[in-house]
């Protein structure tokens, strides 16, 4: 049987929880950590390997170097700096780009031929930077984008409507950040359009409050514990599962647009079909006039920061 190897660049909070989630899911056979702090990478690998003794699926976890990318099936980019209380993800741009400027040439020099999944913030800008630096096909380079935002959006609906979040069908689009938007016109509950449902719980729903809550959940975690890690670790594991099994799963990721939604030449959060080769297709959701305007504004913010990243 095919053995799947994944390399995680960055052994901090996010990278370590990505590895732990992958081990729990049991979809990969080998996890290799690369970090500028080699001892930290070794320690994280050893700690996760200990946990693996109790998992149903055996996984090799170790520290390595960029040579390990040559035969890797997937590379996850989790290096960078966490945002601090009061910071937006865009505020981490300078420090994150400095990390990418070190990583990109080393990764480009390898024989790696699979998908690169970016987690480092600001996620959309980092995906664009790596696309330009590596000069690979755009289908191979994407970030987890608004997948975590979408999970938080479902939580916000759960809290507001007192229903199981898994019964809400929605996507968050745009920047993985404070300019993201929710196409409320397409939100479904139990298969029915949210806006068509009758009853007091739906009539009293405040859409602006849902969006604000979606934006604030991540910062509440940062304020409370200093970083987010469990949510993004599970998001990454789901993305990897779609790649490993070539399942053609539809999930919101930061994919490169080539005219979809009226935009091109940027990575932005949109629903996409994910399979063995990466992003197989971008799904265009119908947006009403106000929703398209909100999406356009988010794209402009990302484009502005893309230019900033290229000038650093």
UniProtKB/TrEMBL annotation:
Gene3D superfamilies in the record: Lactate dehydrogenase/glycoside hydrolase, family 4, C-terminal, NAD(P)-binding Rossmann-like Domain
Pfam families the UniProt entry points to: Ldh_1_C, Ldh_1_N
Domain Lactate/malate dehydrogenase C-terminal: 146-301
Residues passing through the membrane, by range: none
UniProt xrefs under SUPFAM superfamilies: LDH C-terminal domain-like, NAD(P)-binding Rossmann-fold domains
Domain named Lactate/malate dehydrogenase N-terminal: residues: 5-142
Keywords: Oxidoreductase
InterPro entries cross-referenced by the UniProt entry: L-lactate/malate_DH, L-lactate_DH_AS, Lactate/malate_DH_C, Lactate/malate_DH_N, Lactate_DH/Glyco_Ohase_4_C, NAD(P)-bd_dom_sf
Family: Belongs to the LDH/MDH superfamily. LDH family.
Cited PANTHER family: L-2-HYDROXYCARBOXYLATE DEHYDROGENASE (NAD(P)(+)), L-LACTATE DEHYDROGENASE
Entry protein name: L-lactate dehydrogenase
Provenance organism: Fusibacter paucivorans
